[in-house]
């Protein structure tokens, strides 16, 4: 009987000891989320600076904490009356490994509009402080095109911060403009000489040309992180200006000639070895030499030597 009592006492002790760990962690996560919400309501982006890991999943995209804070600043500037809070009894926390997943209904108010969104935060404890790994809302939520979400003002933010290239890119006789969304660079990869142009990007190393005219589709260029746009005028006699994209790297630069109306390349990229052929301008690389006809000049290697070679291309 004594043995049974002893075992029962140990069982009760172990049961309550195990259940003291998670409630304590969950309580701290709840406090963290409350403070996170209050920082939004107070419109204080700097208060959120220590809330995120260096790289996070942010509304479906990989972002640095710096990018997230910039995002929050834009939100607060655009809606100075913005508030958000977690609805009572709508916060659930589960733990897997060292990561807490907090699911809650977030009530937001801005510009006279009120709405509820099922939201998620993945939180991890780092050196005694909680940090966010993921911030998102449920895919089946309504009104995901609301202006408080990054996807709705991402392009407008980029358009405001980058140089515009003007031209008639759809052939309607009216002026449009184009800009480039570039990836964020982490560092240069130090490898062998042949791959010394390589860079480490956050996410994919790709650039995207976007247009003010929404009838024109975005153009994506892979392995491109630094660029410059050129208005090449109408090269193929379709009434629309072609757009040039310089893919700039430490030892090369390549000119992509796009038909902006359909996003297709008019010819293979024109690659220049800038360590050998320096200070070449657009006019040195591309000339319109007749109706639907261009002359391009690129760097080529012949018998171990780099030379400039020109060719005439007839455009469709």
What does this structure look like?
A hairpin with a 2-residue loop joins β1 and β2. The protein has five helices and 20 strands. The chain is elongated and about 70 Å long. The chain folds into two domains: 17-153, Nuclear Transport Factor 2, Chain: A (Roll), CATH 3.10.450; 163-314, no CATH class. By secondary structure, it is of the alpha+beta class. The protein has helices at 2-19, 21-41, 65-78, 150-161, 282-285, and strands at 52-58, 61-64, 83-96, 99-110, 113-126, 129-137, 165-167, 176-181, 185-188, 199-201, 206-211, 219-222, 227-233, 242-248, 252-259, 264-265, 270-273, 286-290, 293-302, 305-314. The strands form five sheets. Strands 2-1-6-5-4-3 form a six-stranded mixed β-sheet. Helix content is 22%, strand content 44%.
What's a quick, concise take on this entry?
By secondary structure, this protein is an alpha+beta fold. The chain is 22% helix and 44% strand. The chain has two domains: 17-153, Roll (Nuclear Transport Factor 2, Chain: A); 163-314, no CATH class.
Instruction: Write down the overall mean pLDDT.
Output: 83
The stretches of 5 or more residues where confidence is low (pLDDT under 50) are 1-23, 190-196
Please tell me what the overall shape is: elongated
Helix content: 10-25%
Q: What class, by secondary structure content?
A: alpha+beta
How many beta-strand runs? 20
Main pleated sheet: 6 strands, mixed
Q: Count of helices? A: 5
Helix-strand pattern, N to C? Answer: HHEEHEEEEHEEEEEEEEEEEHEEE
Residue share in β-strands: 35-45%
Q: Measure the end-to-end span.
A: 96 Å
Rg (C-alpha, Å): 28 Å
Count of domain modules: 2
Task: Give the strand order of the largest sheet, numbering strands 1, 2, ... along the chain.
Answer: 2-1-6-5-4-3
């Amino acid at each position: 009987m004594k043995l049974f009592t002893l075992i029962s006492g140990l069982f009760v002790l172990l049961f309550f000891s195990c259940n003291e760990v998670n409630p304590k962690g969950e309580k701290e996560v709840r406090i963290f989320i409350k403070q996170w919400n209050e920082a939004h309501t107070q419109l204080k982006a700097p208060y959120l600076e220590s809330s995120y890991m260096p790289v996070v999943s942010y509304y479906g995209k990989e972002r640095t904490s710096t990018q997230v804070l910039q995002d929050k600043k834009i939100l607060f500037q655009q809606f100075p009356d913005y508030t958000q809070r977690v609805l009572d009894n709508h916060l659930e926390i589960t733990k897997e490994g060292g990561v807490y997943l907090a699911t809650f209904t977030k009530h937001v108010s801005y510009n006279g509009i009120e709405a509820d969104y099922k939201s998620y935060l993945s939180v991890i404890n780092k050196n005694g402080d909680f940090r966010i790994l993921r911030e998102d809302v449920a895919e089946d939520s309504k009104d995901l095109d609301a202006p408080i979400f990054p996807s709705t003002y991402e392009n407008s933010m980029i358009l405001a911060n980058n140089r515009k290239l003007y031209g008639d890119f759809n052939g309607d006789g009216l002026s449009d403009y184009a800009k480039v969304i570039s990836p964020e660079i982490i560092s240069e990869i130090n490898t062998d000489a042949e791959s010394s142009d390589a860079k480490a990007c956050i996410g994919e190393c790709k650039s995207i040309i976007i247009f003010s005219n929404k009838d024109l589709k975005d153009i994506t260029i892979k392995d491109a992180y630094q660029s410059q746009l050129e208005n090449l005028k109408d090269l193929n006699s379709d009434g629309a200006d072609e757009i040039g994209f310089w893919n700039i790297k430490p030892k090369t630069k390549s000119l992509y000639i796009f038909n902006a109306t359909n996003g297709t390349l008019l010819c293979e990229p024109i690659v220049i070895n800038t360590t050998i052929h320096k200070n070449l301008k657009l006019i040195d690389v591309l000339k319109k030499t007749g109706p639907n006809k261009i002359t391009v000049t690129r760097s080529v290697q012949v018998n171990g030597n780099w030379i400039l070679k020109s060719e005439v291309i007839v455009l469709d």
